[in-house]
Amino acid sequence: MGVSWTTEQQQVIDLRNRNILVSAAAGSGKTAVLVERIVKIITDKNHPVDIDHLLIVTFTNAAAAEMRERIGNAIEKALDEQPGNEHLLRQLTLIHNAQITTIDSFCLYVVRNHFHEIDLEPNFRIGDEGELKLLREDVLGRVLEQNYEEPSEAFSDFVEGYASGRTDAALNEMILQLYEFSRSYPWPEKWLDSFVGIYRIENREELDRAEWLAPLTQNIRFVLKDCEQLLRQALAVTQQDDGPDMYEKAVRSDLEKYESLSKLTSFCELSVALSDIKYDRLASSRGFEGDPDKLELVKSLREQAKDVVKKLCRQYFFCSPEMMIGQLERTEPMLEEVVRLTKQFADEFAAAKRRKNLVDFHDVEHFALQILVDEETEKAKKTAEEFRDTFEEIMIDEYQDSNEVQETLLRSISREERGENNIFMVGDVKQSIYRFRLARPELFMKKYDSYSLEESTTQRIDLHKNFRSREEVLTCTNDIFYKIMARSLGNVEYDAEAALYPGASYPVSADFIPEILLADSNDELLEDTELTDKKTLEAKIVAEEIKHLMKTQPVTDKAAGTLRAAHYSDIVILLRSLSGWADSLVEVLNENGIPAHTVSSTGYFSTVEVQTVLSMLRLLDNPRQDIPMAAVLRSPMAGLTDEELAVLRLEDGSVPFHEAVLELAEGLYEEGGQIEISDSEADSEADQKQGRNADGKKEDDIETTAHRKLLKFYKKYRQLRQLVPDTPIHELIEIILRETGYGHYVAAMLAGSRRTANLNMLLEKAAAYEKTSYKGLFHFVRYIDELQKYDVDFGEADMVGENEDVVRIMSIHKSKGLEFPIVIVSGMGKNFNKQDTRSKMVLHPELGIGLDYMDGKKRIKSPTIAKKAIAKQIELENLGEELRVLYVALTRAKEKLILTGTLKDAPEKLEFFRQQAALYAHSSDTTAIPYLTRESAAGYLDWILPAVLSYGDKYPVRIVEAAELVLDEVENQLEQNENLTERIEEIEAADTQLVGQLKQRFLQRYPYQTDILRKNKYSVSELKHRAMRERFEAEQEETVPAFLEEPVTPTIPLFIQRQGSVEQEAQNKAQDAGQEAESKAEQKIESNTANRGALRGTAVHRVMECYDFTSEKSVQEQMDAMEKEEKITADMRALVREQTVADFVSSETGKRMALAQRGGALYREKPFVMGFTEEELERYGFGAGAQMIENEAQTENAQQEIMSENVSQENHMHEEDLTLIQGIIDVFWIEDDGITVLDYKTDCVDTAQELIDRYATQLKLYADALERVFATRKLKVKEILIYSFRLEKLISIE
Fold it and tell me: How far apart are CA 123 and CA 272, in angstroms?
């Protein structure tokens, strides 16, 4: 049986040879219709089109994959009906390469295939987000530094005005904000230049004509019109039989004033009129015998109107137009300067990315635009013409979320310029909720207004029917949006054309009326309870409602089509923002026995386990930081208590915390040497120092315990820090987790699986960082800091599957495109976020840049009228976005819709909204509530309550009494206690023999665990790092994490006993004054040392790889050529000392290498892969017998015992197995009597022996590999050499 399409859907499927805009309401089946249209096009009998001649653009990769799958299924279905159809068979092949893609992927396709047209290197890569932010910060720092070195007067004034306090962070934010905003436009530089001069206004007439002022003037007129309506209502009340007729004269006088105000059309006229407005005094009401409520109503309406005018005057008419013009004139240079700095940054950032061969997604879009469109003429280039020939039709899904760049791109490859309309656009402007990503729903509305519903070359088709939801849900949604969404706010007229109409069939039931649940957050009964917190209070309401739903609410079974009881998985809770709300909901729901789950896109970096590891990394990078130091010492890694930290702080209160701790730790280390203080020794020492108390119980010595823990941690810390220069970050994190025991601790915490998964995510991010152009721990810490600074957060690891029976909590944005049987929209009482209108600079795509007037020298700050006008328009557009977000939330429900929120003094506010609704009860059900009510809304309830109350009692609005919640809390506690008692009784009655059998099974361990962990391929560097780590581990005692140590019960705080120790520490410090300057210098370079060392090593190896030993050119000349030919970068060159290279080249070894190069016997950077048996690796100290694999395993003690029992068996098993070893040899050359191997080293060492200890094994492996390679020529390695660029010395390895 075929699908039955509506008339409008059939039009969408069948119409051809025109531009079509499909306005598809929520749940209207637009994806199914789009797929059917595509299938019809490629199977058309008269004009079949190959699938790869269609460009289908979707909003996400997931949507593109789903679209491709659906089209593939439809083609296969058509093939079942027409087996052997060659055209359809070809489509099945072509679909895999068809352009069913996102706009980003299409732009990348264009750039990859036409990179040569814009002089782009073909091997460019998309930069990692954190890497790009680091680079952006570095470039911006250089740009500002250049301007500080030679500051212009405009720059100095700009810094004086907009930099706050002792930092110029505000300038950074302004430049980056303007840069990011400009990138959503086709020609960013032109867009920036277009707003230079908008503040050049000389008189009132020019001020009135300013484009940025027109929307504000219109808004003021709308507001005044509503004030006029308020006074009309007041006048009508005064004329009623029992109304206050004595007020009629004053109200009529006010009305006349407002009528004259609403006729004014210019801002300056309104300024004059509002500044002169005066009100008549109300007549005395003494002796009034009419309705006192009407008397108060008239007063209230009049005061509302007067308050609105006062607010307008305070906000927009705060000074004369001439003063406003003067402020704008003085702010214009600031505007020009911020534009200049942004353009300079854009140029230098682009150059930096080019040097690193990096691009971001904005770059990809703009590169594609450069390839397709000529910037000067804005006409299509030849490449665009080729795409026009290729694509018969361009289909754009979710068109309401397009921006200007995407619009320009897709129009450039359409055939509109040829007079052939071939663009098909589908979307719903009411669901455009990505304004924060700079989407422009105005593009959709422009076509919505201009395209015809009749037969036309530019035709609009509206899909009204909703095939998702019950009629009750749709009616409620329509009724709310009839009242609150209009052209004046939201830019969409919600009328019969925009409304939703039911198209789905559901079993009849009376249990699906939408509900609104409110709580009074100011209820006295909530005092001294946990419900005083609004989030917890609302979460409790939601929990009680879910319990009720689980007992009484039916839903329709998707498979059977009949009603069944609701499951937890049928319910979703939607929130505007998960931050701060989701966790409260999960906690309260779980406490009430309701399984709940949320997956956030934020919160990852704030988890305690991630923060602790990051603090440790910061400490390893630079120990001179108070907060990371305190965090790690207090964590289970070191295990100090609060009181013990206080003891460390008191060691020397005259210096920062980190300095006091480091000085103490170093002193303890030097005093104790290599001897570790054990727990028993510490206890014995404490006994001797303090003795025993009267009953023989040992008194605690906090100082000794604190010192013992600090020394133990510090020894481990020193050895970990030695690994930093040579260890990849992800391996370093693994070592930290293992050696401190923190990995096991986290696994044992509440929600240990998720926490462990979070740490695994950190390992993945560290591994990803290693692939960027930045290296080293210092930059990794910066990398993470930049991600946090710019709110690039990640959600915590998701541990719940799709089919689990839990209540899901998600953001409204995340829910877009999804549907759920029961939807609870919570947080409706939360205020809207208006922060983006309160910053020093506001941005609007059409109106431009709004700046505060700043005079840094006089310390004067004042918002310009331009900023206020632009900020107001942004605020109105943000309110329009909030309307659309609410629309998305309400249209997710299939059967049951519930809205919840908290209000302060809920009964009084509800009564106020009822009175307001009564005032416009005479209007039709589809007439919007007054503009003033909609425009002044602070949160969703300010829209929802007036809307639903205007329909009388049609929709139940219930205030949940605090008494209910408190009583329920008591009943729940009693029920939980009963359940707990039952469980304990069941445990006690369990079969002991069965329990024993279960324990035995669970304790069993797999005997060949090492086989699982054994790798079959290692790099030589990995083996070298392993050797260093094994030496580190061999020096350690058996790891006992601090959190497993026996806790000490404090009795007498040490700081009460201490006498004079602070002064003694100060004296000791004074004795070391001669070393202070050196210490300060070390502190300055501490954090950069490891990173620069790694970069210097890379630079030296690259120079030596490219160096021509046979050339007569000097080292400087050769390095100049390397940099010019981009074999090395300027940064790399700066790290290499030319004299050191020259000394090596002129040495005896350098001359030998030159001779070998002339004879073609010098080989550099040669990779190899060789197979070694376990026995051969053991000779180098890397076999299983050397505990290489066992150290990787790091399993529990029981597992280790089992492994040791089976080790001989394992060795036997692996006798014939080969492990592949791969590496890269820096340089070797062949002479008559054999091969010489040389390795360049830049390690920061003091003696040659240190390098021999580190690298002897590695180089012997190189020699072994070379002798195997040259076995047929019977060549042997005669010399193994290291050249240390640090020591400037050649070292021979025996």
Answer: 64
Q: If DSSP codes are grouped into helix, strand and coil, which group holds residue 1220?
A: strand
Kindly state the DSSP code that residue 96 receives in the 8-state scheme.
T
Q: Are 361 and 438 in contact (CB under 8 A)?
A: no
**What is the distance between the terminal CA atoms of the chain, rounded to a whole angstrom?**
84
Look at residues 1272, 1270, 1269, 1279 and name the one whose alpha carbon lies nearest to residue 1169: 1269
Total residues found in the chain within this entry: 1294
**Per-residue pLDDT tens for 423-433?**
999 999 999 99
Distance CA 413, CA 769 (A): 37
Query: Helix, strand or coil for residue 424?
Result: strand
Q: Is residue 255 helix, strand or coil?
A: helix
Element (H, E) at 294: helix 292-316
C-alpha angle 701/707/711, rounded to 5°?
150
Distance between CA atoms of residues 870 and 1199, nearest Å: 68
What is the pLDDT at residue 1199? 39
Structure-token match 């109107």, residue found: 305
Query: What's the rounded Cα separation, in Å, for the pair 60 and 71?
Result: 17
From the number of C-beta atoms within 10 Å of its C-beta (0-12, 13-18, 19+), residue 879 rates as: buried
Are 527 and 963 spatial neighbours (Cβ–Cβ below 8 Å)?
no
CB 878 within 8 A of CB 832: yes
CA distances from 816 to 176, 728, 812 (A): 30, 40, 7
Largest CA distance in the chain: 127
pTM above 0.85, yes or no: no
Q: Are strands 1289-1292 and 1218-1231 parallel, antiparallel or unpaired?
A: unpaired
Per-residue DSSP letter, 924: -
Closest residue by Cα to residue 1264 from 1159, 1177, 1162: 1177
Residue pair 476/514 in contact (Cβ under 8 Å)? The answer is yes
Residue 1020's CB is within 10 A of a number of other CB atoms, namely: 21
What gap in Å lies between CA 195 and CA 848, rounded to an integer?
6
pLDDT tens for residues 111-131?
Answer: 999 999 998 988 898 988 888
> Considering only CA atoms, which of 40, 48, 56, 37 is closest in space to residue 90?
48
At 834, the pLDDT band (50, 70, 90 cuts) reads confident
Q: Which helix (H) or strand (E) holds 1235?
A: strand 1234-1241
Q: What is the pLDDT of residues 457-516, one digit of tens each?
A: 999 999 999 999 999 999 999 999 999 999 999 889 999 989 999 999 898 888 899 999
Number of H helices, E strands in the chain: 52, 28
Reference 734, options 707, 763, 758; nearest CA is 763
At residue 555, φ and ψ (nearest 5 deg) are -135, 165
**How is residue 1220 written in tokens?**
């592949």
* pLDDT score of 1029 more than 70: no
- Give SS3 for 1117: helix
Q: How far is CA 1185 from the centre of its chain?
A: 46
- Tokens 């020394």 sit on residue: 711
d(CA 901, CA 899): 7
Sheet holding 841-844, edge to edge: 841-844, 848-855, 860-863
Give, to the nearest 10 degrees, the angle between helix 1076-1106 and helix 1115-1124: 80
Rounded alpha-carbon distances, angstroms, from residue 844 to 181, 340, 446, 880: 9, 18, 18, 15
Residue the block writes with tokens 């997604």: 361
| Phi, then psi, of 438 in degrees rounded to 5 | 70, 30
* Alpha-carbon separation of residue 661 from 624, 629, 649, 665 (angstroms): 10, 9, 7, 6
Dist. CA 610–CA 398, nearest whole Å: 37
DSSP codes joined into one string, 158-215? HHHHH-BTTB-HHHHHHHHHHHHHHTTSSSHHHHHHTTTTTT---SHHHHHH-GGGHH
Tokens at 420, concatenated: 């052939």
